[in-house]
Amino acid sequence: MVSASGIGRLNCAEDCSTRSGCFGFTWLPGLCRLFSLSAFYNLAWESSAECDVYTLNTTKLNFVACNQSSVMQNGVCERAFDGNKNQDYWGGLSCIHTDNNGQPGWWEAQLAAPAQISHVTIYNRADCCSSRLNKMSLTVDGVECHRVDLTVAFSIATFSCNAFGSKFAMINLQAFSITMCEVEIYSL
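That's the FTP domain-containing protein sequence above. Prediction below.
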């Protein structure tokens, strides 16, 4: 069992979802305790206080439609949720690409129904231009749930996004196009 800082059950759940081997968590006000399945098998489970126990059960949500600010080089919006995680734009034909017209690019997708969104995993383009996603706003139904502000480009990253809604969007905060290869969105 590992203690983690957290200000609420949702933060505790997010922490568990990003740690390999985390099976669930207990929550006492101000204390988040993460555990693996071995806590039950090895009889390591002890609690001196009454607590709530939660098992982590994330659900990958499905997009049903999408749109983007523009299309360049056949990089259509549907490629971002086609299941193809190849990060080579030219080799995999699996990435989206907006036009580089000097305006910030954006991409948005619609869920089948409103849901409580916990986190988003983004597969960046790896063969070129990865820093284009260093500064962006992630929104749900027009409300920012996470602001990305990085100095080093990422390949694959998971961002928390505590929001309820049905339309997810990525808005570039730089005057660049958006190129990315897959977006996965999860609910607790």
